[in-house]
Amino acid sequence: MKIALFGATGAVGGYFLNKALAAGHEVTALVRSPEKLVAQPNLRAVKGDVTDTSDVQSVINQTDVVVSCLGNVKG
Question: How many domains does the chain have?
């Protein structure tokens, strides 16, 4: 399954990411800091902002499911 994931660098998102990859899914993660993710097969990290509709749209195209593990942003 092709999964679009938001919040992949957080605790819950990281857990979900590892489980999804271990199950053989292809994950595209929209993240502010791609360097926080370890390169893995079936993982595509896309630098972007979840509040930018064009960034979100570029990630969700050609996916089967969207998963949001977003939390509160400090500030």
Answer: 1
